[in-house]
Specification:
CATH topology: Trna Endonuclease, Chain: A, domain 1
Low-confidence stretches: none
Order of helices and strands: HEEHHEEHEHEH
Mean pLDDT: 89
CATH architecture: 3-Layer(aba) Sandwich
Shape: globular
Strand content: 15-25%
Largest sheet: 6 strands, mixed
CATH class: Alpha Beta
Number of domains: 1
Distance between the termini: 29 Å
Number of strands: 6
Radius of gyration: 16 Å
Number of helices: 6
Length: 183
């Protein structure tokens, strides 16, 4: 078993223990799995998140799905806010208003800068909050530089003002310690 898989299992287990309400943890969650909307994986790229936390918005967005996601957010808000606290976020953090899941987690130990950028895009687009979890200092520095680049692009009107603003950069060690310390 790789170190990434060990960390993925540990993070998933800790989230399972700490989450309240109907929020559930799924590893290797495929965005198109069990979907009832028009998301067509034959045509569209179908990302697979390392860890995803439900409820999943896999139907056409409707009031019931929105209510379930917002309820899961509210009952887990203390945990989510604790993760955000004192971690690297964009200057003007903003939750994703149309997510596919409550929390999207991407864990990275190796990979090119393009892989890192893809992790940021997937976590941001899919989660109400996206957690980027590097496993080493090199990966952390790459993510941090990419986030600074994206923030620069936003400040200079090169991208939409709300893209990627729901990302939290937190090392695997920090996330594990934080989740272990939560009551």
């Amino acid at each position: 078993m790789t170190n990434t898989r060990i960390i993925q299992d540990k993070i998933a287990k800790l989230f399972s223990q700490k989450l309240r309400g109907e929020a559930k943890v799924e590893k290797e969650w495929n965005v198109a799995r069990n979907r009832a909307d028009n998301y067509n994986p034959q045509i569209l790229y179908a990302p697979r998140l390392d860890v995803a936390i439900s409820p999943f918005m896999i139907n056409y967005v409707n009031d019931e799905e929105i209510r379930r996601l917002e309820n899961a957010f509210e009952v887990n808000k203390q945990l989510i806010e604790k993760i955000k606290e004192e971690r690297v976020t964009f200057e003007k953090f903003e939750y994703n208003r149309n997510p596919r899941c409550l929390i999207a987690v991407e864990i990275e130990a190796t990979g090119s800068r393009k892989h890192h950028l893809g992790d940021i895009a997937n976590a941001s687009i899919l989660g109400k909050i996206g957690l980027i979890v590097p496993m080493n200092e090199k990966s952390y520095r790459i993510f941090h530089r990419i986030m600074k680049y994206l923030e620069f692009a936003q400040k200079n009107n090169k991208t939409s003002n709300n893209i990627f603003k729901n990302i939290v950069l937190i090392t695997s060690d920090e996330l594990v310690r934080l989740l272990e310390s939560m009551a």
